[in-house]
Write a structure and sequence with these properties.
Order of helices and strands: HEHEHEHHEHEHHEEEEHEEH
Largest sheet: 7 strands, parallel
Strand order of the largest sheet: 1-2-3-4-5-6-7
CATH topology: TIM Barrel
Radius of gyration: 19 Å
Length: 283
């Protein structure tokens, strides 16, 4: 996409009332016009200008500084393991872990709010408690929030479906990780694409019922519920769950692989009194 096209889309988005700009990819920092797009976002008055990145180029102090001066004020980095060799393997690039750590240092020095995204897969799900300890330590380096995201069963991930793992295997390790955040009195992570019934104690952290209005670069406007629901289904058992109307269910491709036997409908809503006292921070 040319710079002219990018700026045109930003102008149209502002005219339609959108105030936050999220730039993803691929890897947005490799785009030849990324600095100009960020600067255009600031000129147009977007209050949040966020990049979703692997952190490779943000490990370069000069480049990170240029982005900050252009108007970047929020970053989400991909960090999938506390082990350098596992992060490198999952990212497919030697030195990926080191570059992510350098990016965190650079962005922290620039006072740019940071959020970490950890995608759960077969290679790292047993590491979730150790990853939790790392995320807590990284708060001292400027990381304000974090999320555990369950794998999406489509696109590139479907091509690498040997990395898939059923949620019933993930949950024991995820619960242990959440307990570590609680014991350390740290903000709890955001749990993305994990249905309520798998984490009944942490439903306040589940990100399944966001109604975020968004417009993509093609000009199509829709809310995040529609985007999540397009590839998902609700088995018959879901009808007995009190969260039926709020939960989009499981991905159809997930159900084709693992079936619906893991689903345990919840009989009551989690009241605020039942929810964890320290919900995750939101950037």
């Amino acid at each position: 996409m040319s710079l002219r096209q990018s700026v045109t889309y930003l102008v149209q988005a502002r005219r339609r009332g959108f105030g936050s700009l999220c730039i993803s990819g691929g890897e947005p920092t490799t785009h030849p016009h990324i600095l100009q797009v960020v600067a255009a976002g600031r000129r147009l008055g977007f209050s949040v200008i966020r990049i979703l990145s692997n952190g490779f180029r943000l490990a370069e102090p000069d480049f990170a500084g240029r982005l900050a001066r252009a108007g970047l004020n929020s970053v989400m980095l991909s960090l999938h393991s506390h082990l350098p060799e596992m992060q490198d393997k999952l990212m497919g690039v030697p030195g990926a872990y080191e570059k992510c750590m350098k990016a965190i240092v650079n962005l922290s020095g620039l006072r740019i709010p940071l959020r970490i995204s950890c995608v759960i897969n077969r290679l790292n799900y047993r590491q979730l408690p150790e990853i939790a300890r790392l995320l807590i330590r990284l708060r001292q380096r400027g990381v304000r929030a974090y999320s555990y995201t369950y794998s999406v069963y489509e696109g590139q991930m479907w091509k690498n479906r040997e990395l898939f793992v059923p949620l019933s295997e993930v949950v024991p390790y995820l619960n242990r990780a959440m307990e570590i955040f609680e014991r350390q009195r740290a903000p709890l992570p955001y749990l993305r694409l994990i249905p309520y019934c798998f984490v009944p104690r942490y439903v306040s952290c589940v990100g399944m019922d966001e109604y975020t209005r968004a417009v993509d670069v093609t000009g199509i406007e829709r809310n995040s519920w529609d985007a999540v629901s397009e590839t998902r289904s609700k088995p018959e058992a879901c009808r007995r769950c009190v969260y039926y109307a709020r939960c989009p269910g499981l991905e159809t491709s997930y159900l084709s692989l693992w079936g619906s036997g893991e689903i345990k409908p919840l009989a009551r809503f989690s009241l605020l009194a039942d929810a964890p006292e320290r919900p995750m921070e939101v950037l």
